Amino acid sequence: MVCLEERSIGMEIKKDLQTKHPVEDLTDDPVIIEQVKRTITLAPLEKILNLARSNSLWPMTFGLACCAIEMMAAGGPRFDLARFGYEVFRPSPRQADVMIIAGTITKKMAPFVKRLYEQMPEPKWVVAMGSCAISGGPFVDSYSVVPGADKLLPVDVYIPGCPPRPDALIHGMLLLKEKVKNPKVVEEKPWKAIK
Amino acid sequence: MESNKVAEQLQEYFQSIGNNRKVLTVSPDELIPLMYRLRDEYEFNYLTDETAVDYGDYFEVIYNLSRVPQGDILMVKTKVDKEKAEVPSVFEVWPGAIWFEREIFDLLGIKFTNHPDLRRILLDDSFEGHPLRKDFQWVGGREV
Q1: Within this chain, do residues A93 and A127 fall inside the same structural domain, yes or no?
Q2: Same domain (yes/no): A32, A115
Q3: Cβ–Cβ under 8 Å, residues B28 and B40
Q4: Do A93 and A178 reside in the same domain of the chain?
Q5: Which residue from A107, A141, A147 is facing B124, i.e. has the nearest CB?
Q6: Closest CA relative to residue B91, chosen from B47, B135, B121
Q7: Directed axis angle between helix A67-75 and helix A166-181, to 10°?
Q8: How many independent structural domains does chain A possess?
Q9: pLDDT digit of tens for each residue in chain A (195 aa)?
Q10: Does residue A94 lie in a domain region?
Q11: Which residues is A116 bridged to in the sheet?
């Protein structure tokens, strides 16, 4: 029996030699059993899907303020977010998996942020990039700024900085990858995701 | 032509006109005829900026005009009463004033009569008050 190791970072496939592979019930031919064991991996469907999702998150092209410049830099060739599979910035919320809230959410913009989030198909994630998206930043007491994206949406990853460097955004996206792959990591020991 | 000369020449037509370096002051009643004259006779064909200031007792609406061929600038100011903050809109002279006046209305609450579309432009429509007024008090913030 082959299974996915629980709560591991690489989520590598671990061979459990004790349990019997289902193919052994069907045939006694050692060649067939060996070939099937070598080529077919059994795992919970949700985990396989999460593995696929986490390695190719499609962010939405959505910048609210200066953090968007760093987000663009992260997508460009110098920092190259594409190395991790996140380069496909989609202009439509209907094709996007993750919303990077890059900048200040003003009260005038807030209904549209919420609407765009609601237009995204499940499963979806939200990354709050920069101090403004985390808490309102320097504008926290302003009459026109929403004090934090979590007042509107469920936020998965917070990236501090004003603005965060593209490296920080990449780190945040990798943390999101760990969360998507293995939600338990986030619930119990968040620092374990950082390796 | 210097703006001094502009002021001198205009003085016979407009009683309320005042002049201090490159600044003309005029009362709101005479604003629109003066602006038409400045545009048509003196070729101030571009409204660079329109803004307003709250001086506590009164407002002042400020028009920065320029004439593109000569490269001159001229500032026109008009004093507005605080209680009855109303100025005629100059959008009929320079249509680009529409957005400037919406911003002034939004942040300072000066009403522009004859303005075709006087709505808030920067703040959301449900906002109450005009935040750039000196007596504006904001209650709220992080965790209310």
Answers
A1: yes
A2: no
A3: no
A4: yes
A5: A107
A6: B47
A7: 70
A8: 2
A9: 344 444 444 444 455 555 677 788 888 888 888 888 888 877 788 888 888 888 888 999 888 889 999 999 998 899 988 888 888 888 999 999 999 999 999 989 999 999 999 999 988 999 999 999 998 888 888 888 888 888 888 899 999 998 999 999 999 999 898 888 887 766 666 565 555
A10: yes
A11: none
Nearest CA in chain A to B138: A143
The residue of chain A nearest to residue B125, with distances taken between CA atoms, is A108
Residue at B118: amino acid letter: L
Please answer whether residues A117 and A144 qualify as being in contact, where contact means their C-beta atoms are separated by less than 8 angstroms. Answer: no
CB atoms near residue B114 (< 10 Å): 12
Q: Residue B141: list chain A partners with CB under 8 A.
A: 140-141, 147
CB–CB contact A140 B131 (8 Å): no
The mean pLDDT value for B108-123 works out to 88
Instruction: Judge contact between A104 and A65, C-beta under 8 A.
Output: yes
Give the integer Cα–Cα distance in Å for B142 and A144.
12
- Tell me the CATH number at A96: 3.40.50.12280
Which pLDDT score is estimated for A170?
Answer: 92
Average pLDDT taken over every residue of chain B: 84
The single residue listed with the structure tokens 């003085």 is: B11
Instruction: Report d(CA A106, CA A143) in Å as an integer.
Output: 9
Q: Is B142 within 8 Å of A107 when comparing Cβ atoms?
A: no
